[in-house]
Amino acid sequence: MRTPIIAGNWKMNKTPAEAVAFVNAIKDNLAPYTAVERVVCPPYVALPGVADALKGTEIAVGAQDVHWEEDGAFTSQIAPAMLEGLVKYVIIGHSETRAYQGVSDEMVNKKVKAALAHGLHPIIACGESLEINEAGGTRSFVEKQIRAAFADIPASDLANIVVAYEPIWAIGTGKSASAELANEIIGSIRVILEDIYGADVANAMRIQYGGSVKPANMVEYMSQPHIDGALVGGASLKEDAFVDLVRLANEAKGLS
After folding, report:
1. Per-residue confidence at 255, pLDDT binned at 50, 70, 90?
2. Are the beta carbons of 227 and 207 closer than 8 angstroms?
3. Coil, strand, or helix at residue 37?
4. Which of 37, 58, 67, 220 could, after both became Cys, cross-link 5 (CB 3.0–4.6 A)?
5. pLDDT digit string (tens) for 63-75?
6. How crowded is residue 159: how many other Cβ atoms within 10 Å of its Cβ?
């Protein structure tokens, strides 16, 4: 069985002090749910404090992005070596970085390769706009993103990669894809991975859903056979909500 993974993407929220206080408040409450992988992804400036606060726990830390170059004149960017030993995961290709920072499919692929080379575990985000969705182009658009992201990535690396399907129209809008639709698209992603790597590798891949996930709809998503967790935005910033998401994931997958 694939281990569910719930990752909180804090985006540009919480000061370093607030971030440390938050993880200190939730870490004991998250401790019982060892069958679910728990990840928090604070802003860069909060990573050292959060990582230190979570030492000795099984809660993983992730970064929100990474550059593909080792160093150089890339003002505001973070090199993969700067994250080594500090985080386990790194989100790559989130729609906000694609929209606001011009991250392309080719860049996503380069970031994934750089992350893997430094022992980091990519969470590769993909997803379509409302216009593409309403035009019936979701599957072909997501397939393009997935094939580009995994170009020249060997099958041996896939155990260290998570995919997150996040329809852009559902991120932070209060709208969410139905559990059935999310499961259908995530199932189609698994078919694409099967075409590239074979059934065994594709069936072992963990694929999350993201987009206005909250405790009220968590069980619906986690009850779907292809959905292995959630990449959570707003709800991950609230102590009780994030703990509830992990608990519900644990219960929905029959792990309680």
Report:
1. low
2. yes
3. strand
4. 37
5. 999 999 999 999 9
6. 11
194 in catalytic set: no
DSSP state, 2?
A: P
Distance (Å, whole) CA 247 – CA 243: 6
Please pick, among 67, 94, 121, 226, the residue that the annotation labels catalytic. Answer: 94
Question: 3-class DSSP state for residue 44?
Answer: helix
Report pLDDT digits (tens) over 209-238.
998 899 999 999 999 999 999 999 999 999
Look at strands 5-9 and 37-41 and give their pairing: parallel
Q: Give whole-number Cα distances, 121 to 43, 85, 111, 217, 241, in Å.
A: 17, 12, 11, 27, 25
Considering only CA atoms, which of 40, 30, 78 is closest in space to residue 61? Answer: 40
Active-site choice (128, 166, 220, 226): 166
Per-residue pLDDT of 109-130, as tens digits, reads 999 999 999 999 999 999 999 8
Question: Which CATH number does 5-252 carry?
Answer: 3.20.20.70
Cβ-Cβ contacts under 8 Å for 58 (sequence gap 6 or more): 31, 34, 38
Q: Which residues pair with 230 in a beta bridge?
A: 6, 209
| Residue 94 among the catalytic residues | yes
Using DSSP bridges, classify how beta strands 162-165 and 206-209 pair: parallel, antiparallel or unpaired: parallel
Which of these, 99, 92, 37, lies nearest to 64 by C-alpha position? 92
